[in-house]
Amino acid sequence: xxxxxxxxxxxxxxxxxxxxxxTFDSQSTKIETAFPQExxxxxxxxxxxxxxxxxxxxxxxxxxDSRGATESQAAEGASSDQRADTLMLVHIPADRKNxxxxxxxxxxxxxxxxxxxxKINAALSLGGTPLMVQTVESxxxxxxxxxxxxxxxxxxxxxxxxxxxxxxxTTPFNSSHLKGHYFGLGPNTMNGDEALAFVRERxxxxxxxxxxxxxxxxxxxxxxxxxxxxxxxxxxxTVSNLVGAMSPYxxxxxSLDAATIAGLAVDLKDVRAQNVVMFTLPTSGTGTSADGxxxxxxxxxxxxxxxxxxxxxxxxxxxxxxxxxxxN
Length: 328
Hints:
39% of the residues lie in helices and 22% in strands. By secondary structure, the chain is of the alpha+beta class.
């Protein structure tokens, strides 16, 4: 979804934007019930100074290794067997100068409204997309404006549509998803199958999901870098293939249509890869729940500071103060 925003921003003046919009709207799935009851939600923010009358935008991204009936149930607000393997909160400040993507560990131990404490990814299985939105909103006291759910298979199609991407591997490993494949230290040029194996890997690491989250961020940075490369954007076929490859694997709330994305894209026309910051919500390490589950412990101070920064639309300052410009 971040990739689509950046690509549309670069081609919005092109003659083939109508076809891109039609592809996205016709091939993506609409989540009929994406949000909880209005009475349970934070109030809509007011425009801030320096934002040209605009407000910050928050988009909740969920990634899953499975699609199908379980996703349909989750989208409708019903319980299902599906859990969010990847959870990211995208924050676009009112001034539209940057895009901040904060990964949330899927095993973070939180209060899920109406269900008590559990891993945050359980919210999707307990109450579908609306409960996941309500859970994130209750943690950060921020209103979620849009929701997008992506299947991991989209990473494969996206990579192949770009003709492969080069990702900097910081922790080498033998893949447990792609038999016989070794991801060496340094730049690795990956095809679709390799990219999918890379973003899914967690068994090869001592810190499991922590490194997987870092890998996913590294992959997304590589995709963004290549997506806005001049050779990519000047080729209508490549851009069309890029949108076409991702759209069938994306489910979005009904208001996040091509027109809305195009509007955001125009606002973000000056954003480049270096303006997209990715970091992980700081935690207090790992532990064990009362019922014996391996969990990630929340860091109340970090949550409070991020909540304050998002409320005041000063996440840029928070990131700089904590040196998260290149992740954490």
